[in-house]
UniProtKB/TrEMBL annotation:
It comes from Streptomyces roseirectus. This is Class I SAM-dependent methyltransferase. It holds the Pfam family CMAS. One of its GO terms (molecular function) is methyltransferase activity. Coiled coil: none annotated. Belongs to the CFA/CMAS family. SUPFAM superfamilies: S-adenosyl-L-methionine-dependent methyltransferases.
């Protein structure tokens, strides 16, 4: 069948230098490409304008969020097929300047411009964050956290389920419930930290209070949880009250840099350190070291990316920076361990739980898709589409080892040299 789809497929293949791996349906109803598998639906010419104005991941994300493109069929399969074109071209992928020297590339761009029409710079969807340089001041961090978390506790409840834990679960079997796997993760953190009755625990980036409640209810700890999100804090306090734990759990809207009532016996940082940034990471590590009592433990649960051959710096993902985690930065595991050691910590254990996050994300996507109509009543269609794409693409990224997640256990070892850890640490007793 001819029409816009054939012309679009041909132009995209000239630009990409290879076949488009999915079937395309254009705005005029025409189709082109493989008969089997998912279909990339290009609903209007504005989608092409977005791709031309911001080639690559960000342009495609804008088109997805705005509803200019969608997928019919298996979204995961579509993303797998498109990964080699969009995300996984590797360090040897040609630069724009190199591509422009190819006659086929130039002809493809001209073809896309003719199909797209004018204007070529459509306004970004309203869900896109207003970004500034990654300053990581108290003000910019508060604004970034608000963009991500203050979108409604009901929406997060729909996606995360009753556990209200927004970090990687810890699975034993694929058919285990999400709530059980999240409970097991909270218990694993408590055991690694050696949380016991009467101990003071600081939960940095406490979210909706799930870890604080677990540590207090199951292990008798006294917990201070800090978050920059007003909405998170409000629900966390209600959950603490409903659990009858207001005398042992305190939830604060506070920057971790402003916590001044240490020392604590243990500190949990679960899915928070990704927000800290390269320039502030050593300050973060040193501050947590100062807040711990001698012999105190830190559990740093953090997403990482593989190192590149020629650098160890932090990395920002354009789609995630614009729509999900403004100012979020991912570093290699080795960089994180080095910074913790520079701050004075003794790193005692590192556990990779990469596959666990893929399983978690797939459950969250299912929750969102099962509750799609309710989600659209809680947030904008664009915001729901952001989450659908972000979580599905992230699940594949974890499965393909493009990113990982690690639990790093570190100790503020006292001058005596006694870490207080058992000889066989993976027992996690005491």
């Amino acid at each position: 069948m001819g029409g816009a789809a054939v012309r679009l497929k041909g132009a995209l293949e000239l630009v990409a230098g290879g076949e488009v791996p999915v079937r395309i349906r254009a705005w005029d109803g025409s189709e082109a490409g493989p008969e089997e598998g998912p279909v990339l639906v290009v609903r209007n010419r504005r989608a092409l304008r977005r791709l031309l104005f911001k080639p690559g991941e960000l342009g495609l994300a804008r088109a997805w969020v705005a509803g200019d493109v969608t997928v019919e069929g298996d979204l995961y399969r579509a993303l797998e097929l498109l990964a080699g074109v969009i995300w996984e071209r590797g360090e040897e992928a040609p630069s724009l300047a190199q591509s422009l020297r190819r006659a086929d590339f130039r002809r493809g761009v001209v073809g896309l411009i003719r199909l797209a029409g004018l204007p070529l710079a459509p306004t970004p969807p309203p869900e896109e964050a207003r970004r500034v340089r990654h300053l990581h001041t108290r003000h910019t961090d508060r604004r970034a956290i608000s963009h991500h978390y203050d979108v409604g506790n009901e929406f997060y409840s729909l996606v995360l389920g009753p556990s209200m834990v927004y970090s990687c679960a810890y699975w034993s079997e694929d058919d285990e419930t999400l709530e059980a796997a999240q409970r097991d993760k909270l218990e694993l953190v408590c055991r690694k930290l050696g949380v016991g009755a009467g101990q003071r625990v600081l939960d940095v980036g406490c979210g909706w209070g799930s870890f604080a409640i677990h540590a207090a209810r199951e292990h008798g700890a006294r917990v201070v949880g800090v978050t920059l999100s007003q909405e998170q804090a409000a629900l966390a306090r209600k959950r603490v009250a409903d659990a009858g734990l207001t005398d042992v759990v305190e939830i604060r809207v506070q920057d971790y840099r402003d916590v001044d009532d240490g020392p604590f016996d243990a500190i949990s940082s679960i899915g928070m350190a990704e927000h800290v940034g390269a320039e502030k990471y050593l300050e973060y590590a040193r501050r947590l070291h100062q807040l711990l009592a001698p012999g105190g433990r830190l559990l740093n649960h953090q997403i990482a990316r593989p190192p590149r051959m020629d650098e160890t710096a932090y990395e920002v993902d354009s789609f995630i920076d614009a729509y999900v985690f403004p100012d979020g930065e991912l570093a290699p595991l080795g960089t994180t361990v080095t910074q913790l050691e520079r701050a004075g910590f003794e790193v005692r254990d590192v556990e990779s739980i990469r596959e666990h996050y893929a399983l978690t994300l797939r459950r969250w996507v299912s929750n969102l898709e099962d509750g799609w109509e309710r989600a659209l009543k809680l947030v904008s269609p664009g915001r729901a589409r952001v989450w659908q794409l972000y979580m599905a693409a992230s699940a594949l990224a974890f499965e393909r080892n493009r990113i990982g997640v690690n639990q790093v256990l570190a100790v503020r070892t006292p001058e005596s040299g006694s870490s207080g850890l058992p000889l066989r640490t993976r027992v996690w007793a005491g």
